[in-house]
Amino acid sequence: MCSITGVTTLHARAERDAVCDALTVAGPDAPTLCAGWSAFDLAAHLVLRERRLDAMPGISLKPLAAYTDKVQRSLKAEFGFEGLVHAVRTGPTGVYRVVPGFDELVNTMEFFVHTEDIRRAQPDWVPRESSPELEEVLWRRLRAGARLMLRRAPVAVVLHRIGGHGGHGVALGGPKRAPRVEVTGRAGELLLFCFGRQAHARVDLTGEERAANALRSARLGT
Asked: What InterPro entries does the record tag this protein with (predicted)?
């Protein structure tokens, strides 16, 4: 277990290794679930998040995206694929290291999702077996952020979590007065669904067919 000023970073460290292992196995040209990105692009994105805070706003703000893309390309040229993977694996760096708990808070979920972005874009993938402890962490993050992730949902959404130490759990999102769709699965699968990976999340949807189809094709995530 790693720690920074006494704050455990067990899950962030494990998921950091998992995403690096997935990148290494897939290779630089492998596709990912991030539209238009290869594994090489995704590796550069992960390094940019930790080492180039000046370029981070463009990840979510379109007017600044051109600068972020430029920095991402420069990182690919500077490090190469293997160098980028090594840079991710040897982290955290910057604010992720000096602010107690920040690595665990932010990167556990980020690395989990991006590991699956690599794995589930490959043929014949199978789900990873997540520990009950990791499922608990992911569920807490999801419950806290469900309304934000589902803010563009065209229907009311009820997330039903199964498995884990806590058993069943419920989280809500989407417009309250719209038709309702129930989404059931393990915490990690629900997280992927709410992050916009609906087509690759192993969940069950219950509700009126038109509403369920609208949710499947909606642009979800932060």
From this structure: CHP03085, DinB/YfiT-like, Maleyloyr_isom
Side chain identity at 192, as an amino acid letter? L
Our CA angle for 114, 183, 139, nearest 5°, is: 50
Rounded alpha-carbon distances, angstroms, from residue 76 to 24, 48, 53, 72, 102? 15, 10, 16, 6, 26
**Is the CB of residue 22 less than 8 Å from the CB of residue 28?**
no
Looking at residue 197, its amino acid is R
Residues 36-77: pLDDT tens digits?
999 999 999 999 999 999 999 999 899 999 999 999 999 999
Q: What CA–CA distance (Å, rounded) separates 200 from 24? A: 21
- Going by C-beta distance under 8 Å and a sequence separation of 6 or more, which residues neighbour residue 183? 157, 158, 159, 160, 190, 193, 203, 204, 205, 215
Q: Are β-strands 3-4 and 156-161 bridged in parallel, bridged antiparallel, or unpaired?
A: unpaired
- The whole-angstrom separation of Cα 198 and Cα 15 is 21
Mean pLDDT of 86-107: 84
What are the angstrom distances between the C-alpha of 60 and each of 108, 132, 177?
A: 19, 31, 28
